[in-house]
Write a structure and sequence with these properties.
Largest sheet: 7 strands, parallel
InterPro entries: UDP-glycosyltransferase, UDP_glucos_trans
CATH superfamily of the largest domain: Glycogen Phosphorylase B
Pfam families: UDPGT
Strand order of the largest sheet: 3-2-1-6-7-8-9
Strand content: 5-15%
Helix content: 40-55%
Family: Belongs to the UDP-glycosyltransferase family.
GO molecular function: UDP-glycosyltransferase activity
Organism: Drosophila melanogaster
Number of helices: 20
């Protein structure tokens, strides 16, 4: 009996022990603003487990400094810059605000522009023969970044349809990801805010109307714009690969809770390191001089805030002399002026986590990208968010709703608003309390995000057919009316309309019944009047029948009285004549 009880354990251990090293193809073709380097921890963990990887990535400077066994790496630059293309004006230097519906068009333009920039780059042209040879090899698993709902490099992979495909998404759950999974769309537009909108979680009528327009505009954009343009760059069916699983960079502490299809696995915080590294000595010595804590700044486009950005920073730093400010100036074109309590650095993603992990970090100023906010929650640091593009507005709205920090609007940004926002997160206890709860939930998991991602990747290699039942191809075959039950809802709608029409008719009859009866009587009177006109030569006929009857009766009485009077006169005249005769 004991042996039988341990049989499932032995089978499970045997399955993992028998898993041989696999050949894995990793494709990451997203632009820089989508942070293509966030998938590197997963690739490193798969290498550590003995698998062989061919990585083709657009991550900035990710190439290993020395040769790594089992890794073949190709770096392809993706120079597409969504900020400079759509949101920044160079002369004069300003930020361009954009309504949400236009940002939805930008979202899909990023998909096409990024793909065009990658495929038409000089690096891609020079390495194409070598890449073609590498991509023609046999692979046990294909991992692809589908943050934008497309993979530009899949067109070069021969025979990918016979291999299991694992998708990585650095964004939120979208209908495009559902389509790639061939899963049922569980996103309800009446309850789930659109992933690039600033709609609040509790939506009123106008919010729901706006939300439905955003979601229902996507299929139209695909049909009219995306697919026709994409067909000129590559085969459309290769651009939208069929996925078995998706590893999604979300977590309920920051993102809204929703029903996920079984093929979607949340791995929010996948890029966060298990252990942070000690900071350089000069950073530690700088921070030890200030007893009110540390504030870390990573706002690369602050110069474009209507000539107020740098001035607002200087005002904030000058107004808090006992706070140490560490400013990431990697993407700033104009270096800030020197201040006694300011340290300027070129900070990469790894160093940013090391800074946020410091014990006395009291605030983090950023634009609201998912990776920075996840790091802030992981290390329990309140944030000041100034959203500028696409999904940052959705993230900032969630931060505000959950008291994880303060949100600033571009239209409200000035020299004092930034200082006021920092004062709030430094002084108000509610932010610290909310972040403590969020940090506890974010860190407390049955498995870490990295362990969960590695487990599903290896399980997909061992049992690729296990996940085929997650797809619902019949759902995608349904048209819009059937998929949204509009055909079924027409039946009660018709019944309801019939009931409303019947009720309206009844009310109309009850309301107009008396007037119709009156009209019938008047018609009968008119008929009698016409008949009387034909029978009598009189030219005048009273309109009122009652008056006519009373007049005729008066005439008859008058005639009778006249006749009686004449008879009495005649009698009086006759009596004297008779008396004369007798005399």
């Amino acid at each position: 009996m004991r042996a039988l009880c341990l049989l499932p354990v032995f089978v499970l251990l045997g399955r993992f022990c028998s898993l041989e090293a696999a050949n894995i193809l990793c494709l990451v073709s997203t632009a820089k603003h989508n942070n293509p380097g966030w998938s590197k921890p997963l690739f490193d963990a798969l290498l550590a487990n003995g698998h062989s990887l061919l990585v083709i990535s657009t991550a900035p400077n990710p190439e290993p400094k020395k040769q790594v066994d089992g890794l073949v790496y190709y770096h392809l630059p993706n120079e597409y810059d969504v900020m400079k293309r759509h949101f920044l004006l160079e002369e004069p230097r300003e930020y361009i605000s954009m309504v949400t519906l236009n940002q939805l068009l930008v979202w899909y333009e990023v998909l096409l522009g990024s793909c065009r920039a990658l495929l038409n780059s000089d690096t891609m042209s020079s390495k194409r023969p070598e890449l073609t040879a590498q991509l023609s090899m046999e692979y046990d698993l294909i991992i692809t970044d589908v943050t934008q709902g497309i993979e530009c490099l899949m067109d070069s992979v021969s025979g990918w349809r016979s291999k299991p495909v694992l998708g990585l998404s650095a964004g939120k759950l979208t209908p495009d990801l559902m389509s790639l999974l061939r899963a049922e769309n569980t996103i309800n537009a009446a309850r789930i805010p659109h992933y690039i909108s600033q709609v609040p979680k509790t939506m009123g009528f106008w919010n729901r109307l706006h939300n439905h327009i955003m979601y229902y505009a996507e299929p139209l954009i695909h049909l009219v714009i995306t697919r026709p343009v994409l067909s000129e760059l590559m085969k459309t069916e290769n651009a939208f690969p069929k996925l078995q699983l998706v590893l999604l960079n979300t977590h309920p502490t920051l993102d809204y809770v929703q029903n996920l299809p079984p093929g979607v696995i949340e791995v929010g915080g996948l890029h966060i390191k298990n252990q942070t590294s000690p900071l350089p000595t000069y950073i530690q010595e700088f921070t030890e001089k200030f007893f009110d804590g540390i504030v870390y700044i990573n706002m690369p486009y602050i110069e474009y805030m209507n000539d107020q950005g740098l001035k607002a920073m200087y005002t904030m730093i000058h107004g808090n002399p006992n706070v140490a400010f560490i400013w990431n100036v990697e993407q700033l074109e104009q270096l800030p002026a020197k201040k006694p309590n300011l340290l300027t650095l070129h900070v990469n993603q790894s160093l940013q986590q090391d800074i946020l992990a410091m014990q006395y970090v009291k605030g983090f100023l950023n634009h609201g990208d998912s990776f920075s906010l996840q790091e802030a929650i992981h290390y329990g640091v309140p944030v000041v968010v100034l959203p500028l593009k696409l999904e940052e507005f959705n993230n900032a709205q969630r931060v505000m709703e959950r008291n994880l920090g303060v949100m600033l609007q571009v239209k409200e940004f000035n020299q004092s608003s930034l200082s006021d926002a920092l004062t709030r997160i430094l002084d108000e206890e509610r932010f610290i309390s909310a972040l403590h709860q969020a940090q506890l939930k974010f860190r407390t998991r049955p498995q870490s995000a990295l362990e969960l991602a590695v487990w599903h990747a290896e399980q997909l290699i061992a049992e690729p057919r296990l996940f085929k039942h997650f797809a619902q191809t019949e759902t995608l075959a349904q048209n819009f009316f059937v998929a949204n039950s509009l055909d079924v809802l027409t039946v009660p709608l018709i019944v309801l309309l019939a009931a409303v029409v019947s009720l309206a008719n009844l009310v109309y009859v009850l309301y107009t019944g008396g007037s119709k009866r009156q009209q019938t009587l008047e018609k009968a009177v008119l008929k009698k009047r016409k008949k009387s006109k034909k029978s009598s030569p009189q030219t005048f006929t009273p309109v009122n029948v009652t008056l006519k009857l009373e007049t005729s009766e008066l005439l008859e009485d008058l005639n009778n009285e006249i006749l009686e009077g004449e008879e009495e006169l005649l009698k009086g005249e006759e009596k004297p004549l008779e008396e004369k005769k007798e005399d």
